[in-house]
What does this fold into?
Amino acid sequence: MLAAASNQTVARTSPAFTRLGLPPSYRHPSSHRLKRKRLIQPLFDRDDEKTGSLSVGSLRISYRFQPEALVGQAVPLQVGFAVSRSIGGSVTRNRVKRVLRETFRHKLQEITEKLTDQKDVLTMMIVVRRLSEDESRIKRDLLVGIEQLLEALESNSDRSSPDE
It folds into this structure.
């Protein structure tokens, strides 16, 4: 009986068990997380024309298309989240990052559908510069920022398509 209980514990803590209840559209796989310094550094180069940036409320979203060979994975996008150190303590910053990841996760399917025609990987960094009084304000800023990003990507693809 003790062996059976320990097997159930292992099964509940396995990553596969936690993913079973979620449809694929609501997952945020680790392959979509931006972690490499060589991919993050160009996002903060304001002189580079290939890097785009937009600000919404307390958020700044920097984005850039990178060749798939440089990224090393066949994914449509990779995203990173950062919170300024001037915001509270580590608990507050981590809470803000969790809220951002959760909000982004719900829009991930929509974003990847827009990127199906792209051959390069969209890398983006979402930075919180200052803290709003309300958690819902951060969510709202991110949702507005994602919509603006999708519009910018769509207008850029419209401009580049006649040249082909």
Q: What stands out?
A: Residues 26-163 form a domain with the Ribosomal Protein S5; domain 2 fold (CATH 3.30.230.10). The mean pLDDT is 77.
